[in-house]
Amino acid sequence: MARKAADKRGFGSLRKLPSGRWQARYTAPTGETVTAPMTFTAKIDAEAWLIAERKHVENVEQWQPPKERSRPHAWPRRPSGCRRSVSTPRPT
Questions:
Q1: Considering the entire predicted model, what is its pTM?
Q2: Phi and psi for 8 in degrees, rounded to 5?
Q3: Mapping DSSP to helix (H, G, I), strand (E, B) and coil, where does residue 22 land?
Q4: What does the pLDDT look like over 34-82, one tens digit per residue?
Q5: 28, 65 contact by CB (below 8 A)
Q6: What number of H helices and E strands is found in the chain?
Q7: How far apart are CA 28 and CA 53, in angstroms?
Q8: Got the DSSP string for 65-87?
Q9: CA 51 to each of CA 1, 22, 38: distance values in angstroms, whole numbers, following the listed order
Q10: Are the CB atoms for 5 and 37 separated by under 8 Å?
Q11: How many CA atoms lie within 13 A of 44 on its CB side?
């Protein structure tokens, strides 16, 4: 049985898992393989994740692995004296 021609892409790779879901991965600037933190039901969703990751990788000086970016301590924090603003008044 002949294998299908490999899907040539410029960044990362996709593979269909036995479950029918899609896995995305790419080689990071550090040389390690980065796998998406989740699998995708549609190939187009996995491709979209790779496109978003490519934008992060293009800024090599500030690049962080997806796991590092998703940690709460990496999220920007509001200054301590700052309160949330209410955009619309609540009905009374």
A1: 0.62
A2: -80, 120
A3: strand
A4: 999 899 999 999 999 999 888 888 877 777 777 776 655 544 555 555 4
A5: yes
A6: 2, 3
A7: 10
A8: -HHHHTSGGGS----TT--PPPS
A9: 32, 15, 15
A10: no
A11: 0
